[in-house]
Design goal:
about 25% helix; six-stranded mixed sheet; seven-stranded mixed sheet; about 270 residues; globular; alpha/beta; 8 helices
């Protein structure tokens, strides 16, 4: 995992996952350095990950006051249980549905949960953060938020894109990753396939509250940070309903992929 101090307010914990045939998908967590520090998502859930050790390079986990899980997919929740254990004063921000999904895997401590719905806000010491439902999402319990003190938005999967290499996936500025427009539209139709069936005018109306006023930055779990020209990102996702639908690989494609792998060495 690569650690980047993006600004006085935000640190990025940058990881990625290889997606065969598509490249590498960024998998970011963030720390919002508010007076009451907020950790946004907690990384991948594979056994080789050590989120708490990585987080300790940014902040003492015991100082964390809020853990915001944008939605309870396994690429967002890898370190959540360990972090709650290490941060006894932290509370878990999610939704009623989010608690239900998390509770299928472990006993969520309800006395440490803070339920926050889209449109609601919470004070984190020196600033207010306000929840919203991103225009694109793959889970009905997804919430992002806007930091009202800086105008930055944290958007979960929305705006995501695979990129060609792991180095690009873990960079600190999307401008270093090249042109991501095509990848963003592919990701939109892959991660939110329902977008092909929506009324385009109504869909675009869900974008405008985030687009105006233009945010100072976009922090997405699956894209390097967007620190300038954020409006181009909104232009791209506004085109998602008319983008070609993503065709999922089938068994034949899997067999063709497996045929390219080097044979294993007998033990």
């Amino acid at each position: 995992m690569d650690i980047h101090k993006i600004s006085h307010d935000v640190s990025q914990l940058a990881d990625c996952a290889m997606v065969p045939g598509l490249g590498f998908l960024p998998v970011n967590a963030f720390v919002l350095h508010a007076q009451e520090p907020v950790v946004v998502d907690t990384g991948l859930s594979t056994p080789d990950k050590h989120f708490l050790d990585d987080l300790a390079m940014v902040i003492d986990p015991a100082d964390v006051r809020w853990v915001w899980i944008t939605h309870p997919d396994r690429d967002h929740t890898g370190g959540v249980r360990a972090l709650l254990d290490a941060a006894p004063n932290a509370r878990l921000i999610t939704t009623f549905g989010g608690v239900g999904i998390l509770g299928c895997e472990w006993e969520v401590p309800l006395d440490r949960v803070y339920l926050l719905n889209p449109g609601q806000a919470i004070e984190v010491g020196d600033r207010t953060i306000r929840a919203f439902r991103p225009p694109l999402f793959d889970s009905p319990v997804t919430t992002g938020f806007v930091d009202e003190s800086t105008g930055a938005i944290f958007t979960s999967d929305c705006f995501g894109s695979p990129v060609p290499t792991a180095e690009l996936a873990t960079c600190a500025d999307v401008r270093d990753a090249g042109d991501v427009r095509e990848g963003q539209l592919l990701w939109a139709t892959m991660d939110s396939p329902w977008v092909a069936n929506v009324d385009e005018a109504r869909y675009r109306r869900t974008i405008e509250p985030l687009r105006s006023p233009e945010p100072s930055a976009i922090f997405c779990t699956h894209l390097p940070p967007v620190l300038a020209h954020t409006d181009t990102m909104f232009v791209t996702i506004s085109q998602a309903p008319s983008a070609p639908s993503f065709a999922m690989p089938d068994q034949r494609a899997l067999e063709e992929l497996l045929a390219t792998f080097a044979p294993g060495v007998p033990s």
